[in-house]
């Protein structure tokens, strides 16, 4: 699943008339870069959620013959569902089919998708989240087994502990994750909600693993400074 429904508010005015997913990076829309990365990893079926200027995204996929794979859409035109709500709305596509990958359209990274998936398969983990050591305003907290144990806002000091363990390490979420389809019965919230907050709640009783890929390049393209620096256009 590619999360592409966001308004792109941090990138205005660029996103006033162009959806964030279609802003160009090194000559091609960010959406194309992500699709080709997933396709190169062997993924043959993709679901894209759409909201802001959805018709442009759908037309772009159709004009490019879905890049030779199967691509469907999860409509959020009436209501933007946030990350968790968007995933939950896609239950019809993923439930009963095993683990699935979620990739935020904002992210450009050299992460090896297959290694991330392999880290999740064959385990009892509810989800495996790609994380990286980097400066950020908010961190996940983890124990020595790399299980999610909490969260901290580095600007306000607000801290949430979900597992009572000592000597917790900190790391930053990369917006790329593998989720077991057994998560759907556990998503009891309705409407829009954050998947990060849901992960924290679920981590109290379920193993959520943090997969470190600190050696990989990672850029948040929704940050205006990074967007300009990376030679978009």
What does this entry look like structurally?
- The two termini are 25 Å apart.
- The protein is α/β, with parallel strands linked by helices.
- The model is unreliable at 229-233 (pLDDT under 50).
- The protein is built from 7 helices and 14 strands.
- Helix content is 24%, strand content 28%.
- It has a single domain (2-229), classed as Spore Coat Polysaccharide Biosynthesis Protein SpsA, Chain A (Alpha-Beta Complex).
Concise overview:
This protein has 233 residues and is of the alpha/beta class. The protein has helices at 30-40, 54-63, 82-89, 91-94, 113-120, 195-202, 224-229, and strands at 2-3, 24-25, 28-29, 45-50, 70-75, 100-104, 107-109, 127-132, 138-142, 148-153, 159-161, 169-179, 208-212, 218-220.
Summary keywords:
233 residues; alpha/beta; ten-stranded mixed beta sheet; two-stranded antiparallel ribbon; 28% strand
Q: Decide which structural class fits the backbone.
A: alpha/beta
**Number of domain modules:** 1
**Unreliable parts:** 229-233
CATH superfamily: Spore Coat Polysaccharide Biosynthesis Protein SpsA, Chain A
| Average pLDDT taken over every residue | 92
Determine Rg (CA atoms, Å): 17 Å
Reported CATH architecture = Alpha-Beta Complex
DSSP strand tally? 14
SSE succession? EEEHEHEHHEEHEEEEEHEEH
CATH class category label: Alpha Beta
Strand content: 25-35%
How would a crystallographer describe the biggest sheet?
A: 10 strands, mixed
- Distance from N terminus to C terminus (CA atoms, Å) equals 25 Å
CATH T-level topology: Spore Coat Polysaccharide Biosynthesis Protein SpsA, Chain A
Silhouette: globular
| Helix content class | 10-25%
Number of helices: 7
């Amino acid at each position: 699943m590619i999360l592409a429904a966001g308004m792109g508010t941090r990138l205005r005015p660029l996103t006033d008339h162009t959806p964030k997913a279609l802003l160009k990076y090194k000559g091609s829309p960010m959406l194309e870069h992500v699709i080709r990365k997933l396709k190169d990893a062997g993924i043959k079926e993709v679901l894209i959620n759409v909201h802001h200027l959805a018709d442009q995204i759908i037309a772009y996929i159709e004009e490019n013959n879905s890049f030779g794979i199967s691509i469907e859409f999860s409509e959020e035109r009436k209501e933007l569902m946030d990350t968790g709500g968007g995933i939950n709305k896609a239950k019809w596509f993923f439930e009963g089919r095993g683990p699935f990958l979620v990739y935020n359209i904002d992210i450009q990274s050299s992460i090896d998708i297959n290694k991330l998936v392999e880290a999740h398969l064959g385990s009892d983990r509810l989800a495996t989240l790609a994380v990286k050591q980097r400066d950020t305003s908010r961190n996940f907290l983890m124990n020595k087994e790399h299980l999610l144990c909490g969260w901290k806002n580095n600007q306000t000091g607000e801290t949430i502990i979900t597992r009572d363990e000592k000597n917790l390490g900190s790391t930053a979420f990369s917006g790329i994750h593998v989720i077991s389809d057994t998560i759907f019965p556990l998503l009891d919230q309705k409407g829009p909600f954050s998947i990060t907050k849901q992960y924290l709640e679920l981590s109290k009783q379920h193993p959520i693993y943090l997969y470190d890929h600190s050696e990989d390049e990672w850029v948040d393209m929704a940050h205006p400074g990074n967007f300009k620096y990376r030679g978009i256009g």
